[in-house]
Amino acid sequence: MSPPLLKLGAALSTMAMISNWMSQTLPSLVGLNTSRISTSDTLTQISPKEGWQVYSSAQDPDGRCICTVVAPEQNLCSRDAKSRQLRQLLEKVQNMSQSIEVLNLRTQRDFQYVLKMETQMKGLKAKFRQIEDDRKTLMTKHFQELKEKMDELLPLIPVLEQYKTDAKLITQFKEEIRNLSTILTGIQEEIGAYDYDELHQRVLSLETRLRDCMKKLTCGKLMKITGPITVKISGTRFGAWMTDPLASEKNNRVWYMDSYTNNKIVREYKSIADFISGAESRTYNLPFKWAGTNHVVYNGSLYFNKYQSNIIIKYSFDTGRVLAQRSLEYAGFHNVYPYTWGGFSDIDLMADEIGLWAVYATNQNAGNIVISQLNQDTLEVLKSWSTGYPKRSAGESFMICGTLYVTNSHLTGAKVYYSYSTKTSTYEYTDIPFHNQYFHISMLDYNARDRALYAWNNGHQVLFNVTLFHVIKTEDDT
């Protein structure tokens, strides 16, 4: 075969390889299984999930916004990956479109040359037939030479036919790429509002607004108690366990005080996990025995009722010293006004979002509950509220957002039966049940950081989740 024919044969072989690659690889690369593209199927694949949802909203009679806020887990928006994939796919298609355009130009140029050669070969073949018919008039030698050349050219005829087929296939691919580019561009325009950068900014803005909103949701009204979650089984029938509501997120120390009297030992654990496993980190020997189980850890200090007195003690865990002590004037003690279960539970110390509180009863208030807000440094009474609920009829009590919630029993069937708001100095009877799983509660305290109730339930340390109803104040509210 002559050099020009070798060059043409190499070009045709290359074209056949490219055509084969295009027919097999291109459809899978761009996500196609047939030569036609289904717009609806492509659009169905791009179906990003929503990252944020609105659950409910309403207004009270005064026009204030009332809502329940549920903070979702912080995840990257699912549209982001889809948008990046779409952009990358569109870029690939555009690159392929440019490559196919160059290939098409070269193919068309070669195609014209091939058509011209095909015409010449067909003409040459016709001449050979004529020569064969009249070969007697020509020299046998010249005829043989021409016949050999023709025989060399004959294998090129099917190659030329394949070349024409490949050229048509490239034209089809070019049309498919054009259609695919149009569809992808349309999809990109449709979800253009959800571009990654814009979505990211919207998420950051929404998170900022949500944090601002949550600052207004520091207080709420108790609506439901769920649980309990049993954390551990240990100790006697009566006791207390707690964490510090003012501790940082990394500080999850647990304090454990077994029994309601005749004890001065406080056990500390670095975390709930250590508490469960019993990996004690430190032991404190208090200077005085405590009374009851209604102690509280607040801002790094333990507040407890000194045994056989109405004296409140503030003890620092950091220094191991008593920082303050003060008599709670007129407060009954040593089982004069305990909760229904007894156990010297006359004085109940607790904390909430507002601060430190003492709940007790006095003769002056006919044995009914008195609520006093305390100065956490000096233990001075800042203000007191006298309720009409008998202390000895209360199973336990706890404060949430300046409202005292009282249970009607410490036994099975107990429920939150009464509440008193220090903000409005008003009370109401409630009906909020909760599951007293182990039949005897001797300690029930709210932790504002965890938004949970810590309880000692017949030798079981348990947690209750609480659901609060929040009222968001507007700028016009006073």
UniProtKB/TrEMBL annotation:
Keyword Ribosomal protein listed: no
GO cellular component, as recorded: extracellular space; synapse
Any one Pfam family match given in the protein's UniProt record, by short name: Noelin-1
Cross-referenced PROSITE patterns: OLF
GO biological process terms, semicolon-separated: signal transduction
SS bond list: 219-401
Presence of the UniProt keyword Glycoprotein in the record: yes
Subcellular location: Secreted; Synapse
Domain Olfactomedin-like: 218-470
Protein name (database record): NOE3 protein
Gene from which this protein is expressed: Olfm3
